TrEMBL record:
Species, as recorded: Chitinophaga solisilvae
Domain of life: Bacteria
Protein name according to UniProt: 3-methyl-2-oxobutanoate hydroxymethyltransferase
Pathway(s) annotated for this protein in UniProt: Cofactor biosynthesis; (R)-pantothenate biosynthesis; (R)-pantoate from 3-methyl-2-oxobutanoate: step 1/2
Binding sites annotated in the UniProt record for 3-methyl-2-oxobutanoate: D52, S53, D91, K121
Length: 272
């Protein structure tokens, strides 16, 4: 952690904006429980995203669609209880905002009141802009999400890179401008060409955080289970694994099983 990072007592939307202006990259990871959130916060992470990816990595679903608002609130409240410094953003899950802007506002208010989180994240651009405006008008910070939007996976039909064609790229840039004008404090860009992400980051004034969007944006986000190597199957080009926890936990579990079977655990010093 740099000296400048250590000096930040609490990360806020104002701090994040200043980081963009000063050219300080923003670090962001997902977390879904108290224990991991405490470690990330102690380490100095800037943003924790309580992602609807919990549907995949915590519950084992194929997509993010099944997770409910109540389940997101449970995970988010657990995370918020752990943190002292970082900014906590919570995904609005599928079905909690697409219907109309009143439903979107109600969902956002529930998250803020019942979890103590600092903001919400919502997928989409022009098509959900009224919901974004309504939520922000109530004083709730909103982070946008463009590019590959996993809640729309059945519409896309693939997890391939988005916005490779000119028409979709132009729409993405326009959507980023609309989200900024609506009052979003930041935008996540997922799985788009690096040069397009660079153009977006240079076009708008708010922080742009990438996942599979190259190095020219204002910050990076990864899913905790991917970054720590808890998952083995997921191997996209953009992922850098910093640990191989699957192998380490697997080995430790086998060692524990062997010690129990061999009557070596507990030993004389490990009993009362």
């Amino acid at each position: 952690m740099s000296a400048a990072t250590k000096e930040i007592k609490r990360v806020t939307t104002h701090v994040l904006q200043k980081m963009k202006v000063d050219g300080v990259k923003i670090s962001m990871l997902t977390a879904y429980d108290f224990s991991m959130a405490r470690i990330f916060d102690d380490a100095g992470i800037d943003i924790i995203l309580v992602g609807d990816s919990a549907s995949n990595v915590m519950a084992g679903h194929e997509t993010t669609l099944p997770i409910t608002l109540d389940q997101m609130i449970y995970h988010a409240a657990s995370v918020v209880r752990a943190i002292k410094r970082c900014f906590v953003v919570v995904d609005l899950p599928f079905g909690s905002y697409q219907g109309n802007s009143k439903e979107a506002l109600s969902s956002a208010i529930r998250i803020m009141k019942e979890t103590g989180a600092h903001g919400i994240k919502i997928e989409g651009g022009e098509e959900i802009i009224e919901s974004v405006k309504r939520i922000i008008s109530a004083g709730v910070p909103v982070m946008g999400h463009l590019g590959l939007t996993p809640q729309s996976i059945y519409k896309f039909g693939t997890y391939a890179v988005r916005a490779t064609e000119e028409a979709e790229a132009n729409k993405l840039i326009n959507d980023a401008k609309l989200l900024q004008e609506a009052g979003c404090f930041a935008i996540v860009l997922e799985k788009i060409p690096a040069q397009l992400a660079k153009k977006v980051a240079e076009t708008v004034e708010i922080p742009i955080i990438g996942i599979g969007a190259g190095k020219y944006v204002d910050g990076q986000v990864l899913v905790m289970h991917d970054m720590l190597g808890i998952n083995k199957e997921f191997k996209p080009r953009f992922l850098r694994r910093y640990l191989d926890l699957y192998s380490q936990i697997y080995g430790a579990t086998q060692a524990y099983i062997n010690d129990v079977k061999a009557k070596d655990f507990p030993n004389d010093n490990e009993q009362y």
